[in-house]
């Protein structure tokens, strides 16, 4: 169950990062509210996952999901730059996440 909590927490990190961008520095109400709610839910699920998963694994997977997901969302929905070097960097992050998962005792 901890891994499920962790994945959902990571997905919520993508949500709050996107809506933080949409809030325009917390000047728009609804994106700001969504950001705060998603942050609280994401942190809560991360904390629940950390009850049984190691800190290093939990935090790295959480931030990795958020980083990779935000990268993809930025390209698809915000028109951010797509380049081979940026894709290579994201693939390295994904490779690191896979190695962490495979070497975790949980």
TrEMBL record:
Keywords: Cell membrane, Membrane, Transmembrane, Transmembrane helix, Transport. It comes from the Bacteria. GO terms for molecular function: transmembrane transporter activity. The keyword Translocase does not apply. It is a multi-pass membrane protein. GO terms for biological process: xenobiotic detoxification by transmembrane export across the plasma membrane. GO terms for cellular component: plasma membrane. InterPro entries: EmrE-like, Small_drug/metabolite_transptr, Small_multidrug_res. The keyword Transmembrane applies. Gene3D superfamilies: 1.10.3730.20. It holds the Pfam family Multi_Drug_Res. Its main location: membrane. The chain crosses the membrane at residues 27-47, 59-78, 84-103. It is found in: Cell membrane. Belongs to the drug/metabolite transporter (DMT) superfamily. Small multidrug resistance (SMR) (TC 2.A.7.1) family. Gdx/SugE subfamily. This is Guanidinium exporter. It comes from Dyadobacter sediminis. The lineage of its organism: Bacteria, Pseudomonadati, Bacteroidota, Cytophagia, Cytophagales.
């Amino acid at each position: 169950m901890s891994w499920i909590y962790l994945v959902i927490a990571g997905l919520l990190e993508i949500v709050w990062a996107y809506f933080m961008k949409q809030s325009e520095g917390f000047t728009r109400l609804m994106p700001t509210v969504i950001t705060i709610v998603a942050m609280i839910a994401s942190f809560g699920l991360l904390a629940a996952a950390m009850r049984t998963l190691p800190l290093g694994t939990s935090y790295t997977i959480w931030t990795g999901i958020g980083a990779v997901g935000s990268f993809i969302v930025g390209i698809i929905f915000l028109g951010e730059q797509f380049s081979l070097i940026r894709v290579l960097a994201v693939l390295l992050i994904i490779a690191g996440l896979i190695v962490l998962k495979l070497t975790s005792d949980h």
